């Protein structure tokens, strides 16, 4: 608490003393109060929880690794096992990155004579069950990939019209997660093609995370909440600033539809793949965490730089993503040339806010968040913690907060309100 809040409170108490209709009193906010600190018009949660698939998973966004962004089709059981080993030895698994997800190209080009999917005998000679056992022994979970079409994107057999048999097979192997793609879909609407796999997975009796990948083509936020645990909102990401920023903005539109049980998915992380700078990767990770995006590492974890590991293992940023309140933060303010000075924010449990200052301009700038833009009561004071520096700011902030940010970098803070005002008529 800072002194000026006391003065304001005395002033308000004096005003209330001469008014018989309004009484105002200053109250410290309770610790661990779950009530959002923001005006509801800033963070529309009216769809929140309405559509969720009730398989008990995805209470917070999924975390793990996926083979596609770095390896594409160049995968085999050795690289998947080595990745699992590295997730453990780097400490990433302990931070929550538990899903080891195999993307396209694990299967043979054709089904068996009995009609089953078959792991590619050259690259996965021990089979998927054996890989799942290896991964489970390490306390991790195995994800696999198929497609709601007649072929996968790399022209392996798809699961359309084979939902029950394929779901049974995945369950019998001990698979924990299915990413379900959208290629060769015969022009049938996704609203028709995705629910049958949901039902087939459910019928196996095994709890399997269901990740929809229909690229955002049919506004999945509007219908996928009752179908999957997450749904892609955009085309594939690529390892560039242009792609990452475009996708962040597209995903932002659907903020009101995410919540525990079902998340918007702006695609997997590119952090560590080499196409962006350290500052850009830090911004990528910050904004994905704030948007409650799945945190699926997309680099070669067997060969990460210290900077990549530092970004991916920032506990405080991960905690924003995994916050139990589960409200997707969003862009709340932008100004300057092409709106390049941006403030993104979202409510957290414990009556806190996460506030990110993202500089998308070509040089360093100062970015300011006014309380009005954050939906905060103008009289509230907040303590401020920098979660990239892991440092508390020496002074509480009142009415606004400004910070200088390098080009393409993002600073991220936790605001904890110190005093609030209760109005009673
Ligand atoms: C497995 O895949 C990795 C990554 O592409 C590659 O470096 C390695 O040579 C492959 N191993 C085998 C046995 O094919
Ligand atoms: C199947 O769906 C029902 C109804 O939503 C749910 O209660 C149950 O937990 C689901 N089971 C599995 C294995 O996903
Ligand atoms: C990456 O995405 C950006 C933005 O969508 C696009 O302009 C660019 O062509 C893509 N690059 C590649 C290599 O696909
Ligand atoms: C490891 O990553 C560096 C770039 O950071 C690259 O130059 C090197 O070839 C990689 N090594 C392997 C074995 O992939």
From TrEMBL:
Protein origin, superkingdom: Eukaryota
Transmembrane regions listed in the UniProt entry: 6-27
Gene Ontology annotations of biological process type: carbohydrate metabolic process
GO MF, one annotated term: alpha-galactosidase activity
Record EC number: 3.2.1.22
PROSITE patterns: ALPHA_GALACTOSIDASE (PS00512)
SUPFAM superfamilies for this protein: (Trans)glycosidases, Glycosyl hydrolase domain
Keywords, ordered alphabetically: Disulfide bond, Glycosidase, Hydrolase, Membrane, Signal, Transmembrane, Transmembrane helix
Catalytic function, reaction form: Hydrolysis of terminal, non-reducing alpha-D-galactose residues in alpha-D-galactosides, including galactose oligosaccharides, galactomannans and galactolipids
Domain Alpha galactosidase C-terminal, residue spans: 340-414
Recorded family membership: Belongs to the glycosyl hydrolase 27 family.
Name of the featured protein: Alpha-galactosidase
Organism: Nelumbo nucifera (Sacred lotus)
């Amino acid at each position: 608490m800072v002194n000026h809040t006391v003065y304001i409170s005395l002033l308000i108490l004096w005003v209330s003393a001469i008014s018989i209709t309004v009484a105002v009193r200053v109250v410290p906010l309770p610790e661990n109060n779950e009530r959002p600190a923001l005006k509801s018009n800033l963070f529309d949660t009216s769809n929140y929880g309405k559509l969720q698939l009730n398989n008990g998973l995805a209470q917070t966004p999924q975390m793990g690794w996926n083979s596609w962004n770095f390896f594409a089709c160049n995968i085999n059981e050795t690289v998947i096992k080595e990745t699992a080993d590295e997730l453990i030895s780097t400490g990433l698994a302990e931070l929550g990155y538990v899903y080891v997800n195999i993307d396209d190209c694990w299967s043979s080009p054709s089904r068996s004579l009995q009609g089953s999917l078959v792991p590619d005998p050259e690259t996965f000679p021990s089979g998927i069950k054996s890989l799942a056992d290896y991964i489970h022994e390490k306390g991790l979970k195995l994800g696999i990939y198929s497609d709601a079409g007649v072929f996968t994107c790399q022209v392996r057999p798809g699961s359309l019209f084979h939902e029950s048999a394929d779901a049974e097979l995945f369950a019998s192997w001990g698979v924990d997660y299915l990413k379900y793609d959208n290629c060769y879909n015969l022009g049938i609407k996704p609203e028709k093609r995705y629910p049958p796999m949901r039902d087939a997975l459910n019928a196996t009796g095994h709890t399997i995370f269901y990740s929809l990948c229909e690229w955002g083509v049919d506004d999945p936020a509007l219908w996928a909440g009752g179908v999957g645990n997450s749904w892609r909102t955009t085309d594939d990401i690529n390892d560039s600033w242009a792609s990452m920023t475009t996708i962040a903005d597209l995903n932002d539109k659907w903020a009101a539809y995410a919540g525990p049980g079902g998340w918007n998915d702006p695609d997997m992380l590119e952090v560590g793949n080499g196409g962006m700078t350290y500052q850009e990767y830090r911004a990528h990770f910050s904004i994905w965490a704030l948007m409650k995006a799945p945190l699926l590492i997309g680099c070669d974890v067997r060969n990460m730089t210290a900077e990549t590991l530092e970004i991916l293992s920032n506990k405080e940023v991960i905690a924003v993503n995994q916050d139990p309140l589960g409200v997707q933060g969003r862009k709340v303010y932008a100004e300057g040339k092409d709106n390049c000075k941006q403030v993104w924010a979202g409510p957290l449990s414990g009556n806190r806010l996460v506030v990110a200052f993202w500089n998308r301009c070509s040089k360093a700038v100062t970015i300011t968040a006014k309380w009005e833009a954050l939906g905060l009561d103008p009289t509230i004071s907040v303590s401020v913690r920098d979660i990239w520096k892991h440092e508390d700011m020496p002074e509480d902030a009142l009415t606004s907060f400004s910070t200088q940010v390098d080009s393409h970098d993002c600073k991220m803070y936790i605001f904890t309100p110190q005093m609030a005002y209760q109005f009673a008529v």
